[in-house]
Amino acid sequence: MKKTVVIALGGNSFISDQTHQSVPDQYRAAERVCAHIVPLLRDPDLRLVLTHGNGPQVGFILRRSELAALELHQVPLDACVADTQGALGYQLECALRNALRRHGLARLPAAVVTLVLVDRDDPDFAHPTKPIGAFLSKERAEEHRQKDGWEVMEDAGRGWRRVVASPAPKAILDLEAVRTLLDAGFVVVAAGGGGVAVVEDESGEISGASAVVDKDLASSFLARELGAEVLVFATGVEKVYLDYGKPEQRALDAMTVAEAKRYLAEDHFKTGSMLPKVQAIIEFLEAGGRQAIITDPEHIEAAIEGRGGTRVTP
């Protein structure tokens, strides 16, 4: 029987370290990631969707825009997300095509710039808290607040940053395109960076929103809409840890949804790290998913085969 798997790559999957951030460096990182994913496609019944983060890449665009502010217009946030979806989708498609050819697999990839509908009345629009982009002086932040309508806040004593809304996904507007490509045998890259957030007016017209959809929640939402059996979050560690960073830290081979909820209540998972992934996994499994995995790219194949990573089940 056919099995649908969604693998969510973090935006840092394209950046190996702080000295390798150029576009060629990012492509080489994409090649390394795809080398671990393509062997899964030896199974002809596997239907595969890749999603990806874009936080560092959006930050680069916003920083360039900031530096060029005296010469060029600012880049709206929805355009930043669309730009990075296109660029990273292109890199993944090239890397996948080459890896598929090397393995002698007759599959083709396709990248879809994906729109994600959010509720224009989502409470997060009234109280944006997600920091993006470069650190600014208080004076520069205030200038953006007055001139560009930015919401800004001081971030942990390191400077001021723009903050934007992060509303919940309500619908994947390109869902049928993704499903059609899957049915035709394509490996699909979709919902990059959580998708381009759009809102709908009373007449049904859509427009871009100054918001970012959480990439983990969007990946979970897409997996649920596709009826995927397995959701994988590829991140920087092989397994999830309890008491991470403490002398008593311990890795988890497996946990149930009930255990995951208990660990959340005990504050084992932090915002910006495992917290959104675990929340997204709970939503996926409670909606009918069979299994979710958190691991690093090197262990994806072993984890899907039950030999690595942290596996989460209902």
Structure report:
The chain is of the alpha/beta class. It folds into 2 domains: 3-119 and 168-313, Acetylglutamate kinase-like (Carbamate kinase), CATH 3.40.1160; 129-164, no CATH class. The chain is 37% helix and 24% strand. It contains 10 helices and 17 strands. The protein has helices at 23-37, 55-67, 77-102, 123-126, 138-148, 175-183, 215-226, 257-265, 275-286, 300-304; strands spanning 3-9, 46-52, 109-111, 115-118, 130-136, 151-154, 160-164, 169-172, 187-189, 196-200, 206-208, 230-234, 240-242, 250-252, 254-256, 291-295, 310-313. The strands form 4 sheets. The chain has an 8-stranded mixed sheet with strand order 3-9-2-1-12-16-17-15, with helices on both faces. Strands 8-4-10-11 form a 4-stranded mixed sheet. Strand 10 (196-200) and strand 11 form a beta hairpin. The radius of gyration is 19 Å and the shape is globular.
